[in-house]
Write a structure and sequence with these properties.
- Three copies of one chain form a homotrimer.
- Chain A is an alpha/beta fold.
- Chain A has a single domain, classed as Ribokinase (UDP-N-acetylmuramoyl-L-alanine:D-glutamate ligase, 3-Layer(aba) Sandwich).
- In chain A, 63% of the residues are buried.
- The first copy, chain A, has ten helices and seven strands.
């Protein structure tokens, strides 16, 4: 939550973190985008996530799902599938998570931690299948990030490997996707690819000064805050595949 | 919680973070100050907050409230008002939060995120009114911070704008107010103004080395830890208004 | 949780953070080690901790306990003792925590925050006694860290004092102990002493560049990520006592 909020503030967005379903009816109708992250899921948080997702859908607000460790347990997989039935605009995960969701069957033996044990390329077909079944834009993070609406597939080749050695960079870039989707909800694929590219560019610039994962984390956020359009345009690597 | 705890440790205080009402009867009577932050409020945390606040009042310990996003929902506003009825020593918020509490009416259309959408100057009258009705010292953070006991009004002109681009700086300075109030509970207005000024000075010194919000966060805490009295005295800008 | 996860990632481990007892039956049997930290204990988290600990024991996985602020309340002390009855491989705390557990009697007047108010040397006898009664390896952090299986006592003389001015360094080193114990569960004492030494070496190297607690935190993680075996061997200070 800390890194996601600092990412949003650095990018000029205005985050608020709410957990309680009691607050959603007052708050969710006024947001520009909703971001749900199942990272430390518990049974009393899930109903609040569903209430918020339903409200976002009803009030036509884009909502974005980060299905953290979707394959780690049957409970978590089921929770993610229930949330996906509430029509997220975008789902972003790593290859393991997207494959688990697309398969919708629990393969416990391949489960590791929240970091990914599959290449993102393995997950392109799974992502297309999930996009088609859910109606969401699906993004798979990895050495190359892939974004698809089920039909088009876009590759984003920004970022540096050390970003995977910082906890919550995935969660943070999903937050940034929500901010980008808030600006133009009708172009969720473009918003998602742009957010992934911009976050990756910030990581690349940060890496020039970093001596390890912790200083990269700092320089990445500083770089994100200082980015100008010229730099972004000269560095972004987005290809239609 | 992370930034607040690191702020307290850097300043020489000894923080402990407890959530459960079961622990309060054993723990709260031994603290020097209690800090309640409603940031990620949930319905099961609120009773624990009330138990801790009641114990602090009964044992004559200063307790400090950060009414994060007080106007974001009816539930949150009501929770803050209930906590305020338990006699906090100090309430610190941004202009939007203090105005929401003073109005004690829910104006959903003006609600943004946890960052402020009002100037602190707008909130001075609201702060005086809230101080008079609650008996607490009320502080409003902004470009200029205002502190009032309902009668006197003090302005603090330290800090740098980029501190608002770091999540939880408000929460952290409220923690520092609690530490300062612990030293001399009978001078809550002076403690509050001093904590705001010292935190702002740490931000100013940190800004000299910072390249963005994340490095400012680091340098701010480093500076707070390294502050000496001469530096503080030469830099503090507190005016009676 | 943030610092612990970043410590593990920097050291090459693969952390996942789960809170819910519903997930444990699916997830815990597949971990290489389980780490339970009672930092912000609440009554609904305790049952999940017990379920996870029981599963780890049943599936012969090492599990590591950080009894944060064990003496802060009767509830917390009882919770820690209940967890200890579920056979952790390693318990790591500061002197106050280990003494509270060994005495298993609540001395509220000596309770401070989560930082330690006893020297680690005071706690050696308490640690031996706790190791013997629990069957766990017990580590006491301090200016010198002590590790004992109830019979052997090992001292670790790495680290720098400023590490105590960063919140969660204790929690982070316990996470690292879990990662080391995962590699060779049958040598828990050696794993524990090595993890404490390596984390201390990372702190020493980090301190060479640090200007305060926040930059130390960053440089410590960077150093941990960059450590090579030659550096570790030349710097580690472990003595059999």
């Amino acid at each position: 939550m800390d890194l996601a909020a600092n990412t949003l503030l650095s990018a000029g967005a205005s985050p608020a973190m709410l957990h309680s379903s009691i607050e959603s009816p007052d708050f969710t109708p006024h947001v520009h985008a909703l971001y749900i992250n199942v990272g430390t899921l518990s049974d009393n948080w899930l109903p609040a996530m569903k209430v918020a997702a339903e409200l976002a859908s009803r009030f036509n607000k884009p909502w974005i799902l980060d299905p953290v460790a979707a394959g780690a347990s049957g409970f978590r997989l089921k929770a993610c599938l229930e949330l996906i039935s509430l029509k997220p605009s975008v789902i972003r995960g790593n290859a393991s998570e997207i494959i688990a969701l697309a398969n919708a069957s629990f393969g416990s033996s391949s489960t590791k931690g929240v970091d990914s044990s599959h290449d993102s390329t393995d997950a392109v077909e799974a992502a297309k299948s999930l996009a088609n079944s859910s109606g969401a834009v699906v993004a798979v993070s990895g050495a190359v990030d892939f974004v698809t609406d089920g039909n088009r597939v876009v590759g984003v080749r920004n970022g540096v490997p050390m970003m995977q050695k910082i906890t919550a960079t995935g969660c943070a870039v999903t937050a940034l996707i929500a901010a980008f989707a808030a600006v133009d909800p009708s172009h969720a694929l473009e918003a998602t690819a742009s957010a992934l590219a911009v976050f990756g560019v910030a990581g690349e610039i940060g890496m020039e000064k970093a001596a390890g994962p912790a200083s990269l984390r700092m320089h990445l956020i500083d770089s994100l805050h200082g980015l100008d359009l010229t730099t972004v345009i000269s560095r972004v690597k987005i290809d239609t595949l």
